[in-house]
Amino acid sequence: MPRNIxxxxxxxxxxxxxxxxxxxxPQANNTTVALTLLLAVLAISARWGLAEATLASVAxxxxxxxxxxxxxxxxxxxxxxxxxxxxxxxxxxxxASQLSARARRRTAEAEARRLEIQRLYDLVQxxxxxxxxxxxIGAFIQKIVxxxxxxxxxxxxxxxxxxxRSGPETHPITDHDLRAAAEVPDASSDPVRDIATSPVRxxxxxxxxxxxxxxxxxxxxxxxxxxxxxxxxxxxRALEDASHAEAARQSEILKAALLDxxxxxxxxxxxxxxxxxxxxxxxxxxxxxxxxxxxxxEADRLNQIAAEVIAMSRIEAGKVHLDKQPVDPEELxxxxxxxxxxxxxxxxxxxxxQPALPPAAADPEFIQQVVKQLLENxxxxxxxxxxxxxxxxxxxxKIVIGVADAGPGIEENERALIFxxxxxxxRHRFETKGTGMGLAIAKGIVEAHRERIWVESEPGQGSAFxxxxxxxxxxxx
Length: 477
Hints:
Blueprint: H1 2-23, H2 30-47, H3 50-68, H4 80-126, H5 133-148, E1 152-157, E2 162-166, H6 175-183, E3 188-190, E4 195-202, E5 205-213, H7 219-282, H8 289-316, E6 325-327, H9 329-339, H10 341-344, E7 349-353, E8 360-362, H11 364-381, E9 388-395, E10 398-405, H12 412-415, H13 438-448, E11 453-457, E12 463-469
Parallel strand pairs: 7-9
Antiparallel strand pairs: 1-2, 1-5, 3-4, 4-5, 6-8, 9-10, 10-12, 11-12
Helix pairs in contact: 1-2, 1-3, 2-3, 2-4, 3-4, 4-5, 4-7, 5-7, 7-8, 8-13, 9-11, 11-13
């Protein structure tokens, strides 16, 4: 209100200044005075609006009549010609004010529409979120407050019964308001409470009720926001369903691959055991030592397959519970080599230790399993003449344990897949026994320690597998 009073006063002062200026000029031309006053009225209308321009028009007409049309000093117009000039000026001033105000109003309306479109565009960006309904709704409600500069926004999600609120002043929006908004046919506003509500529906299905706490957008804009919210919720739900379907499909693929691998790997030792047992039963001689050795080795293979399946299941289920202790790297590797001595078949192992290595923070049982997997992998996939090197060094504050061979190496396109479940290299897929789970188990155990495992290899140059451990008392303990 004070600003409007100042504008009215400024309009009157401008007209008075023009009248006073031309009064000071002897024999001023009435046409010049009228045009100057008309331009002033147009300027006031363009700058401030119709009300100020109307007041300025009345003041200009009265001033022009009193000071410039004979008889001067009265509001009487004596000559018919001056009456025509007066009427023309009055009509022109009023019409120009109306046209200027209308143009200004349309400009303001166009700017308001542009702003609404920009705000809707900003809201559309929120619909590009990931497939999580709760996160999408929460982010959308927060975005409404930011974009429209409301004091608060809230939403009732009918399918789950949850309420989402954003803004520091949402307490005037009650749960009853939101539930009621979900049931009404269309958007509505309550100017007394400064609240706008709207149902949120998509395809005739009620998703909930939305409420905004002023300053309020127009009702069409409230409807548009509600429609965008409905689309966002439906899109997030569709992405969730697609994600669950894809996860189920991948799970079925993995199960099928696992069953196929197990069937293949279990069938071979069972066949050998069956043949050996049949030979022993039908033989009239004393038990054949060679056949008993086959039975023993193949039974060990079955036991190893079962152990790998159990270990992989525990890792995938997140049930690897570590008991970290100070582990001497040299003692760790010595114990593993002693356990694997029968499986090494006399193969020479070059062991290299950096002097004075600190103890590592690790679960002894699990970390021994990692080293065993890497050693068994090296023995399995490299020729008997290929030397194997086991090392332990300290580098950049980490203890790095490695198993390297001088075998055929790993092709570049297979290196990124080497730690995946059931993956086996193209050249050894049908030549070497195994389930393809060993390296995946090793990777899962190392990552459970919050450490890193990787491979360095070049075709024809051998392969080297490394993993890190943190010295006991370090950050990863």
